[in-house]
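Researcher: Here's a chain I'd like modeled. Treat it as a single chain, no partners, no ligands.
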Amino acid sequence: MAIEPVKIYAVWLREIKRFLNSKSRMVGSLAMPLLFLVALGGGFSSFLPAGSVPGGVSYSTYLLPGIVAMTILFTSIFSGVSIIWDREFGFLKEMLAAPTGRENIVFGRTLGGATTAIIQGLMILVIGLVITGAPLPSPLHMAGAFVFMSFLSCFLVAVGIAIASTLQEVETFQLVMNLIVMPLFFLSNALIPIEKMPGILKGVTTLNPITYAVDGLRDLMIGQGTLGLPLDFAVCLVGFIVALAVATYLFSKTAI
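Model: Modeled as a single isolated chain. Structure tokens:
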């Protein structure tokens, strides 16, 4: 496997230009996270009893790291649909015929999709800090949060690429993604503290890799993590490596 940075950069740049040229996509992808933050955060904060949220922070502040993860989740995993579009319009055939290994195409697409997801996640973070009035994390904690956002986005883009490599129709991809995205989000700690969950749900949540990314973000952003940063980091790193390996293998087997 030969890594070619120039060709990875070319694929990455194409994904970035596609994102920047779609203003409606940028705006539309921010609408649902902001709705969750304002509606759920503002609504539940008004009647939750004292002590319901760890650390004594408002529910909207506690919710913010989960909403950042939600933004990255939806943006990253649906980026895989571009593979199906490229297959339908013939561009994928040209990419596969190029003098480079397929792993470089996967790496470039993963980095491109992750970059767009991180940009939108940072936008939601800035807007959310203003809306919730949460304190601005220190530069060191922001750097750590950026690392978790990077691992989470790369993991999810790789999952999207892996699934898109095995499907032929956009409609099928969207259906499969909805069946994956919703459980990943709602069966995590994005909305509810793990310690407040019933036993069965708590067990399922601890098996969800999104839980560890959210916990890491929550620990670094508002100091309310419960699982520990070393464990959060280890799970996110292993998940990213496994997802990238599977995506590379399945994309290498894809046919036009």
